[in-house]
Amino acid sequence: MTPTIQPAPETSTSPGLRPATGAPVSPEAAPVTRAGRGPLLRWGALIGAGVLLTLVALASLRYGSISLSAADAWNALFHYNPDSYEQTVVRHLRLPRTLIGLGVGAALAVAGAAIQAVTRNPLAGPEILGVNSGAAFGVVAAVYFGQLVEPFQFVWFAFLGGLAAAALVSGVASAGPAGSSPVKLALAGVIVSSLLQSWLTGLLLLDQQTLDVVRFWMAGSLAGRSLEIYRAVLPFLAVGVAGLVALGPHLNVASLGEETARALGLKPHQIRWLVGGFSVLAVGAAVAVAGPIGFVGLAVPHIVRAVVGPDYRWVLPLSVLVGPLLLLSADLLGRVVARPAEIQVGIVTAITGAPVLIGLARRRKVVEL
After folding, report:
1. Largest alpha-carbon pair distance within the chain?
2. Range of 210's domain?
3. Is residue 1 part of a domain?
4. How far are the Cα atoms of 92, 250, 315 from residue 89, in angstroms, in the given order?
5. Residue range 157-166, pLDDT digits in tens
6. pTM here?
7. Residue 37 has what pLDDT?
8. Which end of the chain is more exposed for a tag (fewer CB within 10 A), N or C?
């Protein structure tokens, strides 16, 4: 347990540390900081995000290539008639993609926030662990060597590929007498991801049939995924998200830097291993189901910190709501603007998310970890 001292009159610039004393305090006892926000605003943000997420989820059930009434959506959920075309669309097409969007969005956003905290890198995201590249390489290799053709066969190869890539990143980052560090972790992630991406590109160039099979999955999409696949990886996703949220108080201390964290009684390498392990579970499951979807894990933490400040006891729970809110909104937008066709959500998040992050950078919110 982290030792505590009596609070000093001054407030600190980061959660969990009092200046002028240099002594450790409990992260749970941290005051409202200059970059933080009051409890009323934070609770309001949580409630508001929950309400908006509910509305977007309901809209996801109603709108797409065809628009359905609220009664059709309600009956499909609670009074299902298999002879009704409208209810069948909701029950078997839109409900699965909405539920998957909720889980995938939460996993990517929470993992991104936690990784930014332990690496102290505002440009970090789930990709830094190599999970996206590893999952994509696992699928492409399985299709190329094993002749797999069905999306439901991709899941476990994607999951195993993501786990293997993350283990390789951790091994490279831990090499040497100094052990792991945030900088070494970031560099190892870039190296492994680049290596896997080059191998992946080589396999795709060697076989056009492999490219045709995995093209849709690699774009990142919530469409065409069944609840059976989602149920298979949901336990991993849930454990990963819950574990990261529980680490919130410790991430407040870890985000202060190596020396400060050690002075406060925290073991940074243990926190990095925990964050890495839980992130791999959450992101690996998300990528296995929906494919590699970028930008959510990078942008959502910045959006959340701009509202509630850098206290990860609030950043992580709010990311659980804002992540799926952003992902489902992007998915809904991709369905509506191109109907009767649709644009994959991975493409929409990249197109619409970049201006948001640029706007936050101009307001000087990006650097406030």
Report:
1. 71
2. 38-362
3. no
4. 6, 44, 36
5. 888 888 888 8
6. 0.82
7. 64
8. N
